[in-house]
Design a protein that fits this description.
heterodimer; A: MetI-like fold; B: alpha/beta; Rossmann fold; 2 domains; globular
């Protein structure tokens, strides 16, 4: 008998194993939902699949009676716009600060400690400040995500830039590179795939900040909807919304991974 | 000074000391190196060979004394007049083999973008491809450095340093991590490039035989004074400065010109029989 650490599932086996926990979870849900509904047909905690499907249909494919909008798509568009804007701004700030701090000793001495402190401020704790300063509009929500995500990306990239082998930096100088050329041709190109990695890692917290901001002050958005229907114990809305958010986050992660593999082939070969 | 229109490169070291805190690494080093010398540097570990090279490179500054190139003080940072080949890690992983070579020309020709376009780019590409032929890497031009064997990586690294035609080429144990079979190929290559470009080479090595075979001058770094109670109190200096026969070739200097594909110095595939691409599976 080989050791457990040396036993590997086959391709089909791995696929089956990865699906198994999902099947178990779904089966458990169906069983519990069924049992509760038998006892009390008005139970709202674990709605039946038929109720959930009906609700999804109502939210996704029927106009809302009051606003005349398709709520699910409307909420999705609003949330994604906030999230993507905030991530784009964070990526831009992150890579600029990160490279500059990683490469220029004077700016590192000036900004690295500040960045370390700022990145430790719990962003949700300063959400009230944001509401007071920039109002309850879109700016506050986007700013919250940027404050939560940008410093993390910047610190990560600063570390990655500083980790570039000294030999490379010296070599570039012996090839006549100025500081600007060094950043442009040697450091930045090697930071792009790191930026994608960094974005993937911060995606989870970006969603967290988005939903928190929407829950507190918003009139549309996925987070807003969940917290709105919570008042009516509408689990038939909350559950599909949570699944939808998860699916969105999962797809974004997958797209970023694909982008990294396609656009930065060099970063894959050799396993670096 | 001039010979064939080219400036001779002379390196002078006057009463040079290097200390790190209380530790004296080098003491009272004096040296004069003429143009087109191949200087090999040997010595025990920790005897300041690499520190000496790093000062020449411009990443360390002397504590006392002077480094002069053609009578002028050495700049305190690396520059295009002094090329370097490290043991490893000096290739750019995000650039293909050809782009790695091209980079030096692009940096020199385009201060703002670091990229060349149009006719300038075509000329630079021709130059890069000539050099790729000379170091036997034409077939691997579109690969990334990580896909090359150790020997191929070092050939690329050497070619990359030579393309900017530095007056001085510094080699820091360039072949230390290579298989013995490949090292012989590398010796052939470096001697050829040295004769083509007529540069001055400083090479730190652990291999005594290599240092005698390649060099026109051998420097031995060692400590002349040792205090057992305070091992850091005295530094090393050049204890032997031996002129050697070297392997100078009687060929026209091609610095600034093109390297013809059929040039006698062009490396033939048979020269590199032992050096195959790595098998990535």
């Amino acid at each position: 008998m080989r050791r457990l650490i040396n036993q590997h599932p086959g391709r089909a086996g791995a696929l089956g194993l990865s699906v198994l926990p999902f099947i178990v979870l779904i089966a458990a849900y169906l069983y519990c939902s069924h049992a509760r509904l038998l006892e009390n047909p008005g139970d709202k905690l674990l709605p039946a699949p038929s109720t959930i499907t009906a609700t999804i249909h109502r939210y996704a494919f029927e106009e809302d009676e009051r606003s005349g909008e398709y709520l699910l798509w409307n909420d999705t568009a609003a949330s994604l716009e906030r999230l993507l804007t905030a991530l784009a701004i964070s990526a831009l700030i992150g890579i600029m600060l990160g490279v500059v701090i990683g490469v220029l000793p004077y700016l590192r001495a000036t900004f690295a400690p500040l960045l370390a402190v700022v990145s430790l401020i719990p962003p949700l704790a300063i959400l009230p400040i944001l509401f007071i300063v920039v109002g309850l509009g879109e700016t506050a929500k986007i700013t919250l995500i940027v404050i939560g995500v940008a410093p993390v990306i910047a610190r990560d990239l600063a570390m990655r830039a500083a980790e570039l082998p000294g030999e490379q930096i010296i070599k570039a100088q012996t090839l006549g590179a100025s500081t600007w050329q060094l950043v442009l041709r040697v450091v930045l190109p090697q930071m792009w795939p790191r930026l994608v990695d960094s974005l993937r890692l911060t995606l989870g917290s970006a969603w967290l900040f988005l939903i928190a901001a929407e829950a507190i002050a918003s009139t549309e958005g996925l987070g807003y909807r969940i917290f709105l229907v919570r008042r009516y114990l509408a689990m038939d809305v909350i559950l599909p919304y949570v699944a939808w958010i998860t699916l969105l986050a999962f797809s974004m992660d997958g797209l970023l991974r694909l982008l990294r593999a396609k656009a930065f082939a060099w970063a894959k070969v050799g396993g670096s | 000074m001039g010979q064939g229109g080219w400036l001779l490169t002379q390196v002078t070291v006057k009463r040079l000391w290097k200390e790190f805190g209380a530790q004296v690494v080098l003491e009272n080093v004096n040296l004069h190196i003429d143009d087109h010398e191949f200087v090999t540097i040997v010595g025990a570990s920790g005897c300041g060979k690499t520190t000496f090279l790093r000062m020449l490179l411009g990443v360390e500054t002397p504590s006392k004394g002077q480094f002069l190139i053609d009578g002028e003080a050495l700049p305190s940072e690396p520059g295009p007049d002094r090329g370097i080949v490290f043991q490893r890690y000096s290739l750019f992983p995000h650039l293909s083999v050809r782009q790695n070579l091209l980079l030096g020309l692009e940096l020199a020709g385009s201060p703002l973008l670091g990229r060349l376009f149009g006719a300038k780019r075509r000329r630079a590409l021709e130059r890069a491809d000539e050099l790729l032929d000379a170091v036997g890497l034409r077939a691997a031009a579109d690969k990334y450095p990580q896909q090359l064997s150790g020997g191929m990586q070092q050939r690329l690294s050497i070619a990359q340093s030579v393309i900017c035609e530095p007056k001085i080429l510094l080699l820091d144990e360039p072949f230390g991590a290579l298989d013995p079979g490949i090292t012989a190929d590398m010796h052939t290559l470096i001697i050829k490039l040295w004769n083509m470009n007529k540069m001055t080479i400083f090479m730190v090595t652990h291999d005594l035989q290599e240092s005698f075979e390649l060099g026109t001058r051998l420097l031995v770094f060692d400590k002349v004074r040792i205090d057992p109670q305070a091992p850091d109190a005295f530094g090393a200096t050049i204890t032997f400065n031996i002129p050697l026969k070297g392997q100078r070739a009687k060929i026209p200097r091609i610095r600034g010109g093109e390297i013809p594909a059929a040039h006698p110095l062009t490396l033939q595939p048979s020269d590199l029989a032992d050096d195959k691409p790595r098998d990535y599976s």
